[in-house]
Amino acid sequence: MGPHPAVAAIRLAVRRVLHDILNDHQTSGAHSGRQAPGERERTGRTAERPPSPLVLVACSGGADSMALASALAFEAPRLGIRAGGVTVDHGLQPGSGLRADEVALRLRGLGLGPVDRVAVTVGREGGPEAAARDARYAALDAAAERHGATAVLLGHTRDDQAETVLLGLARGSGIRSLSGMAAVSGAGGRYRRPFLHLDRQTARKACMVQSLPVWDDPHNADPAYTRSRLRHEGLPALEKALGKGVVEALARTAQLSRDDADALDAWAGQAEAAVRDAAGLLECAKLYALPPAVRRRILRRAAIEAGAPAGSLFARHIEEVDRLITGWRGQGAINLPGRVVAQRQGGRLVIRQG
Ligand SMILES: Nc1ncnc2c1ncn2[C@@H]1O[C@H](COP(=O)(O)OP(=O)(O)OP(=O)(O)O)[C@@H](O)[C@H]1O
């Protein structure tokens, strides 16, 4: 008898991603280990085979990432991949250190190794959720570097993706924020999200039938957090009004928006060279002729290049700068975050730090 359907589903999702990782690894190994013709005869050596790649799972001890860890522990040895894990102690709740110890123990119990348990200090910048996320990714990056890991797996599910799309929609900041999380992200495509097409219930069920103990983060149920309210009130209300397929539809929206946003970014990248004069300044008349979606991307990029922090630059800032092009009536300089100033001078748009 085969495994329970939920276990089969999580393993398949992980197997697919491990195949991708293996292909990328072999391609990069083949390039770096390629010998010049005749080299083997001269040196008597063959190219060294790249060592088997190491894949780490980032595990909070929650159902999604425990399911991910179990599937990685099952699949990796069958593909000749080494598999380890990292758990991060954010130090935000009493007893979090003990829990991290326990998670590390469970990961080792699954046969994973190396397993790291890392304590971080969470700052305040951008609010509690963003600060914890920044500290976590810094710790995961450091662990990947320390162990020479090829990839780090994250347990985000289709439900997380749907929530991310809704949060982006509520921010009102364009299709990039509707495109949610990428299946592959980070330096050199380090972060992979095998469960992005899998629902949270399947991950939880897979833990249950494998008798894997899971830890439910009280923050996930705390109505003080926006994401938690969305999870427990917003999405159920939407499902009630629109039907069960809404989560899947939102996740599909993410993929479609990502493709559109990538295409528009590429268009803006090419158009930018054509709207700059010989001195590299942006020409207002040429900007005016571009479609708004392309023009605004160029303006945003110029503001960031001048020193405006991307995270503080909102759609309303770019709209104001855009009015220097499309609604010119002699208005003054526009102040942007990071002490960046945008102003129109003699048919040119000048954006620089003031
Ligand atoms: N403390 C942590 N240590 C290591 N990895 C973490 C930690 N917290 C989150 N992650 C990683 O980030 C992913 C997303 O975390 P998040 O808390 O947003 O989602 P979640 O739905 O609560 O996931 P989970 O059920 O796995 O905790 C997790 O699945 C896991 O891979």
UniProtKB/TrEMBL annotation:
The tRNA(Ile)-lysidine synthase substrate-binding domain is annotated at 282-349
The UniProt keyword set, sorted, is:
ATP-binding, Cytoplasm, Ligase, Nucleotide-binding, tRNA processing
Chief localization? cytoplasm
Task: Please state every residue range assigned to the domain named tRNA(Ile)-lysidine/2-thiocytidine synthase N-terminal.
Answer: 55-233
Region named Disordered: 24-52
| A biological-process GO annotation | tRNA modification
Annotated residues for binding of ATP = S60, G61, G62, A63, D64, S65
Compartments, as annotated in UniProt: Cytoplasm
Q: Which leading EC class covers this enzyme? A: ligase
Molecular function in Gene Ontology:
ATP binding; tRNA(Ile)-lysidine synthase activity
- In short, the EC number is 6.3.4.19
The record's listing under NCBIfam families reads: lysidine_TilS_N
- Tell me, in a sentence or two, what this protein's role is: Ligates lysine onto the cytidine present at position 34 of the AUA codon-specific tRNA(Ile) that contains the anticodon CAU, in an ATP-dependent manner. Cytidine is converted to lysidine, thus changing the amino acid specificity of the tRNA from methionine to isoleucine.
The free-text domain note is:
The N-terminal region contains the highly conserved SGGXDS motif, predicted to be a P-loop motif involved in ATP binding.
Family named by the database record: Belongs to the tRNA(Ile)-lysidine synthase family.
Protein name as catalogued: tRNA(Ile)-lysidine synthase
- State the species of origin: Streptomyces dangxiongensis
Give the gene that encodes this protein: tilS
